[in-house]
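Collaborator request, handled under Task 6.
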Amino acid sequence: MILDTRSPESFAKGFIQNSINIRLDSNLAIWVEELIPDIKQENLLVTENVAEKESIIRLSRVGYYCAIGYRDDGFDAWKSEGKEVDYVDRTSAEEFSNHLKNGVKVFDVKKASEFASQHVKGAHNTPLGTINDYLAEYPKEEPFILHCAGGYRSMIASSILKQRVWDNFVDVVGGFDAISTDVAITDYFCPSALL
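Structure tokens returned to the collaborator:
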């Protein structure tokens, strides 16, 4: 497995095929633990800004000691060597409303409680933590849109879908926070009221 801990913005612009993107921040260990259940899964790290050691430390905090290496010169060198790369197509909040007018399906990967609190009308909720349970819901032929609250989780979901050969979607830059003022959304309910 190739674990790419670069930012979602960097990852979207190009990555080694079949990589999973989980940004190096305070949530790295949480998402690795939730999405990669096999703690013996060997992985190759792709980082930015010489963050290999920090990535290894954060992985070890949740019992992942299987980083078998990293690329010294990073992704840019991989790309400059002419090796195969992939990309995530992205769309802006402004373009999002045009996609909706054309009837494109929307998948929101926020937690179920966040989705119940407020979401784009007509969106389908496929929470990132259980994305593998929802793979059958994602269309293979028709285009669709993917988003979360701010763009972090939807890029993780994008990398998982790309790894499983989905290539007919776009990710919304800035997520729900960026699009919520431009489209029809449900009324807001305080999450604590939904308990």
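The cover message to the collaborator said: "The mean pLDDT is 91. Residues 2-86 form a domain with the Oxidized Rhodanese; domain 1 fold (CATH 3.40.250.10). Please let us know whether this matches your experimental observations."
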